[in-house]
Amino acid sequence: MREEIYNFERSIARYRRIIGGLRNGEVALRLLDHLASLGLSEAAISNNAAHLVALLRLIDFDVRSATREDVERVVAAINRNRNWKAKTKYHKKAVLRRLIQYAKCGSCERGAPIPPEASWISFQSTIRTHA
Q: Where along the chain do its domains lie?
């Protein structure tokens, strides 16, 4: 029922077409395939793909040779965006870390090493809970 409402397959296909035309698109497409091989749902893959579209537009470097400074620039741009809610920023940073991890290590499965270029990304201050 849920897939009929959201049509994740169609969304993923559309995101893949967009990603394929962007810088680092080939790595991002392989990441999406990797996530599918790990058993992520179509909804989760669609969500990752949507965030990848925005991230790839911010990234002006080759993710395979990214430096910490490169990643810091992208995280700063995410944090400065006033149109994104805290939860959206959290997810974008998580997908960015996953992309760098995949590009440098070839995997983002649980237990895979996180390269130092992305391991510093903090998620704690992004989402504020209300008491």
A: 2-119
